[in-house]
Specification:
The complex is a heterodimer.
Chain A lengths: L2 E14 L2 E7 L11 E5 L9 E4 L2 E3 L4 E7 L3 H7 L6 E8 L13 E6 L5 H12 L7 E7 L7 H7 L1 E6 L6 E2 L2 H8 L5 E5 L2 H14 L2 E5 L15 E3 L11 E3 L6 E3 L6
Parallel strand pairs in A: 8-9, 8-12, 9-10, 10-11, 12-13
Antiparallel strand pairs in A: 1-2, 1-7, 2-6, 3-4, 3-7, 5-6, 13-16, 14-15
Helix pairs in contact in A: 2-3
Chain B lengths: L4 E3 L2 E3 L3 E3 L21 E3 L16 E4 L2 E4 L8 H13 L4 E6 L4 H12 L4 E7 L10 H4 L2 H14 L4 E4 L7 H10 L4 E4 L3 E4 L1 E2 L4 E2 L5 E5 L4 H14 L4 E4 L5 H10 L3 E4 L2 H4 L3 H15 L14
Parallel strand pairs in B: 3-16, 4-7, 7-8, 8-9, 9-10, 10-15, 15-16
Antiparallel strand pairs in B: 1-2, 5-6, 6-14, 11-14, 12-13
Helix pairs in contact in B: 2-4, 4-5, 5-6, 6-7, 7-9
Classes of the chains: A alpha/beta, B alpha/beta.
């Protein structure tokens, strides 16, 4: 069930320039599914709208939820100043999440680009820890700008990690598609999150190879719960809610099968 | 203590409603709010056929508010009658349906279909959406056009009609008088104020439609002023809205002359706002010994 609550910050640190790693004490961690997100509300009354941020990891034993986000504007700049014990207004858990059952018995690519990498931590953790998949079957392919390879150690715990960097400082020079090609990697299923050009390339790749690909999309949101119709994506079929080929990313997504969406 | 108000013969348990377009048909927010506690749910605008709306980005944040240009995306009246009305009927609240169209015939079509649905208490006619090119705003910015469409709709409507007015006019009282003269049963105001935001880093408009309607707490003083002016100009009841974030804000609108109020953009920021405003009005009445909420309507002149 969706809930808005005032939670407490457990810890926060900057893990790369402008990339912050925050753990929040909240029981929402127990209902969170990989690929879901939460909304965080700035306290500054001039920046009103909630900020949708993907869930990076959950720890049910500690009752904690982790977000890793980039400071992109005033709202996230405010969040980055929160310290242990500070209150934080959150709404969650939101969105559909990745269809993890589909990964059973398959070899799967988890592809993340930039600030699309954080949800791959929870996804890989659930695939290996909860579904018992072998690390070789969880092929994590992530793309960074440079040698600031945040979350690399976390990802290595739960899968086999291949890295691409734009400047070639770590791993393959180029993007995640270049990393797959140059390392000769293959998979039967793709779960992905990242910038739109990367998601378009993955959609094409999936079509060429005949592999099902799931894309986690983002868009400017207002409500986060499916009421305002601000965050829509063009869909191939008229969906059950809009009846006009406009699925709501916040509620019908953020994860869509690549062939369903026109991006 | 009485919190009931009456608009055009329709009785509401309290003066708190939802603003069209911010609350869907209540489904999404029913997870947060007990819809039974609200005076009415005012639905997202519905047209005679499905409308796809505008390209994204459709929303952007601005200081103390937001811009939107959704473009009245809606599934059309058929789906609305099959899905949204039965959902709302489960609750003990009034249903007000917001109606949009591109031509007078479109509006009349929807109004006639809704006439067959007794669960719908009132119709709110959207002649003020700034984000669609045809229809809507074209009827809401010229007094003679507004008079004409109000008169036509009134001929076909079985329920009382509320004309929703645009603030994007030189003199809102001129529009209010035209609607009243044409037979409108009530007015609602204000719709969003046309605005613009430019992303200086990308050097492009923040909203694909270039302009968007501004809402949120930053527009409240403009809305209060327009409600006050309109209340002085017409005799029909007014539903006031524009940036209401709390019971204090809602009471301001009542004192300015509104019979009821709607909560819009604040639903996005605090999904419990509507219920909190209902409770807050009661607290205010207790604190100041107000026996009947109707004593507050237009009490500041």
């Amino acid at each position: 069930m969706k809930q808005k609550q005032n939670a407490r910050v457990i810890s926060q640190r900057e893990i790369a320039p402008q990339i912050f790693d925050m753990w929040i004490a909240t029981d929402l961690c127990r209902q969170a599914k990989p690929g879901q997100f939460i909304c965080i509300y700035p306290k500054n009354k001039s920046t009103l709208l909630p900020r949708p941020i993907s869930i990076c990891q959950t720890d049910s034993e500690r009752g904690a939820l982790r977000v890793v986000y980039r400071v992109a504007g005033q709202g996230t700049a405010e969040f980055s100043e929160y310290r242990e014990g500070d209150s934080i207004a959150i709404l969650g858990t939101l969105g559909n999440g990745f269809p993890i059952e589909e990964a059973k018995g398959k070899k799967v690519f988890l592809m993340g680009g930039g600030i699309g990498i954080p949800p791959m931590v929870e996804l890989s953790r659930v695939l290996t820890e909860s579904l018992g998949m072998a690390k070789e079957d969880v092929q994590i392919v992530v793309g960074y700008r440079d040698l600031e390879t945040f979350l690399k150690e976390d990802l290595e715990k739960y899968g086999t990690v291949t890295i691409a960097t734009e400047d070639g400082s770590v791993g393959t020079k180029g993007n995640v598609m270049d990393a797959i090609a140059s390392n000769g990697l293959t998979a039967d299923l793709i779960f992905s999150c990242g910038p739109m050009p990367m998601l378009r390339a993955i959609k094409r790749y999936g079509e060429e190879k005949g592999i099902n690909a799931y894309l986690s999309l983002e868009e400017h949101m207002a409500c986060g719960v499916g009421a305002c119709l601000g965050c829509v994506v063009k869909t191939k079929e008229a969906d059950h809610h809009s009846h006009v080929h406009n699925a709501r990313i916040c509620t019908d997504g953020p994860v869509f099968e690549a062939k369903e969406v026109d991006i | 203590m009485n919190t009931r108000v009456t608009i055009a013969g329709v009785d509401f348990k309290n003066p708190v409603m939802t603003a069209s377009g911010t609350f869907g048909s209540g489904m999404e927010y029913s997870e947060f709010v007990d819809l039974d506690k609200l005076g009415a749910v005012v639905t997202k605008g519905v047209a005679n056929v499905p409308w796809p709306g505008n390209p994204t980005p459709r929303v952007a944040e601005v200081y103390g508010g937001m811009l939107n240009a959704i473009g009245l995306q809606n599934p059309g009246i058929d789906v609305f009658l099959e899905r949204d009305i039965p959902f709302l009927k489960q609750y003990d609240t009034r249903i007000i349906v917001n109606v949009c169209g591109k031509t007078v015939e479109d509006y009349v079509d929807v109004v006639e279909r809704l006439g067959e649905e007794p669960a719908v208490s009132m119709l709110e006619i959207n002649v003020s959406c700034p984000n669609v090119k045809e229809g809507a705003i074209a009827f809401g910015q010229k007094a003679d056009a507004l008079y004409h469409i109000t008169q036509e709709i009134k001929k076909h409507a079985r329920q009382p009609i509320i004309m929703k007015l645009s603030p994007n006019v030189t003199d809102i009282t001129e529009m209010a008088r035209a609607a009243e003269a044409a037979g409108a049963d009530a007015l609602s105001l204000i719709n969003t104020i046309t605005g613009m935001k430019i992303d200086i880093h990308k050097r492009q408009f923040a909203i694909a439609n270039k302009t968007g309607g501004m809402s949120g707490p930053a527009i409240k003083p403009i809305a209060v002023r327009m409600v006050y002016q309109t209340a002085q100009a017409v005799k029909i009841p007014i539903i006031g809205m524009g940036g209401i974030a709390s019971a204090e804000d809602a009471i301001e609108f009542l004192l300015a002359g509104a019979t009821a109020v709607s909560i819009g953009a604040m639903n996005f920021i605090n999904p419990y706002t509507t219920e909190e405003v209902v409770e807050g009005i009661e607290d205010y009445m207790r604190r100041y010994g107000v026996e009947d909420v109707r004593e507050l309507i237009g009490a500041v002149r």
